[in-house]
């Protein structure tokens, strides 16, 4: 008779095998086109997340001490990655393979120390190692400044700012610090105040670039994963706190009858105007740029509001102020669309990391569907559906209640 541990092991192996088979099938189908490809991509991501959880569970079953050691030592991996980014290793390698000695000369690092860090990263499948030589792979290429999907700024932001906040995470969990973020405990002021101070302009740029990098991965899912033509031929979508409007550009290109109104703070709007005029002057006729603080009342009544990944930056009270202003200025037949990560019982590790990231920096969180429903209800909205895109982002659709 099998022991409890043997039964768990056997069950887990069977589950992993089935998940691998499912991943192989869905990955192959994702190469096709149309609805089949969309469903296949969703299934591929779901299978991958299940596989990651299964491998983690297998590690805890076979080598529980390794599981603790790997998680505790995660900070070493973070700083190793930050080191590679700050040294410009990915750019130095380019399309070539360089020996450690050659690479060390180019980036100005100690050869022996660089080899240790690069070997660790290669072990984690970041960079390719062949003997004493290294080259870029599909993952490390994302650390290059010139890569269209570059994550260099995100690594810099998380690996410095969020890392700094995380140092006070244990203290930040105490009941007496409930109203303060770990960042505030570490730095002495809120992250939003700190990042907008002139002396921290470089960090502000890094944060903005990091968010653009992160949003780039979900932009396609939002643009193509929802039928925006359902808003009507003459619809104007008001993007609240929309930054420089990267997703609005993509929406206008994909949906030729749609118009947008981009709202944000004065300096952001000026930047948006300059970028749009330079990169896509032909689309400016279908866009308007409005200075608007979402904590202040809207100037006009609108039918379609869109707010993307803003609510997770704020606690419930602040979110109610934001949503309350939209509720007062939405037409009775209007719609509010909020793009957010929605936490589920089987949420991926990435979602959980982002969740605690928000806790560390701004004392906020990634909410569950129920939490969103309750929040919207308090603000005078009724959630009618939550659209799941092909990726991790969801689109919450609500109407005035």
Automatic annotation (TrEMBL):
Keyword S-adenosyl-L-methionine (UniProt): yes
Gene Ontology BP, a term: methylation
Annotated transmembrane regions: none
InterPro entries: COMT-like, COMT_C, COMT_dimerisation, SAM-dependent_MTases_sf, WH-like_DNA-bd_sf, WH_DNA-bd_sf
One Pfam family from the record: Methyltransf_2
O-methyltransferase C-terminal domain location: 182-382
Active site feature: 312
Lineage top rank: taxon: Eukaryota
This protein's name: S-adenosyl-L-methionine-dependent methyltransferase
Native species: Geranomyces variabilis
């Amino acid at each position: 008779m099998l022991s409890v541990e043997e039964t768990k092991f056997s069950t887990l192996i069977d589950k992993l095998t089935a998940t691998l088979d499912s991943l192989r099938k869905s990955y192959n189908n994702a190469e096709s086109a149309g609805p089949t490809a969309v469903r296949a991509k969703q299934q591929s991501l779901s299978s991958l997340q299940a596989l990651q959880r299964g491998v983690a569970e297998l590690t805890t079953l076979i080598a529980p001490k390794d599981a603790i050691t790997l998680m505790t030592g995660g900070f070493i991996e973070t700083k190793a990655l930050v080191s590679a980014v700050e040294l410009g290793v990915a750019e130095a390698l380019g399309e070539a393979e360089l020996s450690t000695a050659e690479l060390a000369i180019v980036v100005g690092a100690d050869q022996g120390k660089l080899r240790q860090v690069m070997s660790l990263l290669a072990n984690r499948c970041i960079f390719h190692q062949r003997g004493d030589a290294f080259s870029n792979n599909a993952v490390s290429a994302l650390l290059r400044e010139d890569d269209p999907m570059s994550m260099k700024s995100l690594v810099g932001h998380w690996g410095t700012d969020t890392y700094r906040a995380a140092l006070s995470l244990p203290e930040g969990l105490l009941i007496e610090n409930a109203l303060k973020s770990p960042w505030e405990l570490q730095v002495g002021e809120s992250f939003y105040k700190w990042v907008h101070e002139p002396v921290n302009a470089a960090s502000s740029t890094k944060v903005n670039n990091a968010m653009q990098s992160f949003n780039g991965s979900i932009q396609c899912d939002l643009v193509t994963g929802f039928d925006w033509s359902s808003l009507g031929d003459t619809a104007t979508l008001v993007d609240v706190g929309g930054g420089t409007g990267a997703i609005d550009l993509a929406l206008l290109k994909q949906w030729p009858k749609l118009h947008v109104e981009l709202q944000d703070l004065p300096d952001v709007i000026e930047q948006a105007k300059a970028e749009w005029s330079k990169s896509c002057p032909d689309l400016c006729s279908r866009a308007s740029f409005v200075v608007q603080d979402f904590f202040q009342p809207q100037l006009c009544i609108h039918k379609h509001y869109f707010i993307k990944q803003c609510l997770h930056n704020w606690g419930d009270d602040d979110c109610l102020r934001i949503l309350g202003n939209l509720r007062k200025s939405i037409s009775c037949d209007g719609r509010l669309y909020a793009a957010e990560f929605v936490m589920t019982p089987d949420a991926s590790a990435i979602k959980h990391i982002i969740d605690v990231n928000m806790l560390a920096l701004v004392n906020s969180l990634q909410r569950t569907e129920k939490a969103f429903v309750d929040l919207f209800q308090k603000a005078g909205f009724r959630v009618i559906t939550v659209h799941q895109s092909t990726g991790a982002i969801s689109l919450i659709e609500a109407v005035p209640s």
